[in-house]
Amino acid sequence: MERVSDNHMPPRSLALGGVIGPVITILFILIDVAVSPWFSWSRNALSDLGVHPYGYLFNSGLIIEGVLNIAFVISLKRIRTAGYVQALMIVSGLALALVGVFNEHFGYLHLIFALIYFVLFPISIIIASVRASLPAWIRVYGIAGSAAALAVIVIGIGFVFHFVTIKNVGLAVPEFIEAVLLAAWSISAGSIVYLKRGSYGSER
After folding, report:
1. Distance, CA of 77 to CA of 17 (rounded, Å)
2. What is the chain's mean pLDDT, rounded?
3. 6-45 burial, b if ≥16 CB within 10 A, otherwise e?
4. What is this structure's pTM?
5. At what angle do helices 108-131 and 83-101 cross, to 10 degrees?
6. In the chain, count of helices (H) and strands (E)?
7. CA distances from 156 to 111, 145, 172 (A)
C-alpha cells in the first residue's frame, strides 16, 4: 500500500473527538440522572432528561458529542475510511447534535433525529470495520458491537411503538446500552487514529 505523508492527511488531534465526545455525553447523562430523583430506568426514556430544569446537561452533552464526532470522522481518512462512510458518519453526528437542539418537546422531529443517529452510526461503523485499516480486534468489535447495538435499538423502537414490553425496563435502558456500545468503538478507534504515526491512502 502506498504510504502518504501526514501533510496530506487531517491532523491526528481531530481523532480525540472520538474519545472526548462519548465520555462527555455519558458523564453528563449520569450527572443528569443523579440530580433527577424522578427519573427511573424502569419507566423513562433518556430524552426525558432533556426537558426538566437540568435538561441542559443532557442536551448539551449530545450537542458536544455530535460536533466532536464530526471532527473525529474527518480524522478517519488516516485509516483509509471511504469517503461515503465518512459522509454517513457525519450525517449521524449532525443528527445526534440535533437531538440535543430539538428536545423531546419537539415530538417527532426529535424522534427522527434520534433514529437517524441510532441506526446510521452503527451501520457506518460496520462498513468502516470491514474496509478501513484497523487492528483485527476493533474490526471484529465494530461489526459485532454495532450489530448488537442495532438489535438493541430495534427493541427500543418496539418500546416506542408499543409492540415490545419488558417488565421493569424503560426505553432508557436500550438507549443507554446502545450509547455505551457505540462509545466503546469511538473511543477505541479515536485512540488508535491519534496514536498511529503515518497513514495510508484513503479509499475512493
Report:
1. 14
2. 90
3. eeebbebebbbbbbbbbebbbebbeebbeebeebeeeebb
4. 0.89
5. 150
6. 6, 2
7. 12, 16, 8
| CA gap 50, 113 in Å, rounded | 14
- Mind giving me the DSSP string for 58-124? HHHHHHHHHHHHHHHHHHGGGBT--HHHHHHHHHHHHHHHHHHHS-GGGTHHHHHHHHHHHHHHHHH
CB 187 within 8 A of CB 198: no
Plot region of 168 (φ>0 → left; ψ -120 to 50 → alpha; else → beta): left
Q: What is the mean pLDDT of residues 55-62?
A: 96
Contact 47, 98 (CB under 8 A): no
Could you give the C-alpha distances from 128 to 57, 77, 170, in angstroms and in order? 31, 11, 31
From first CA to last CA, the distance across the chain in angstroms is 14
Distance of alpha carbon 56 from alpha carbon 54, whole angstroms: 5
Q: What is the pLDDT of residue 1?
A: 41
- Which cell numbers hold the place of 97? 447534535
C-alpha cell at 59: 442536551
Domain positions in the chain are 3-200
Residue type, 92: S
Ramachandran assignment for 102, one of left (phi > 0), alpha (psi -120 to 50 degrees), beta (any other): beta
Mean pLDDT of 77-105: 93
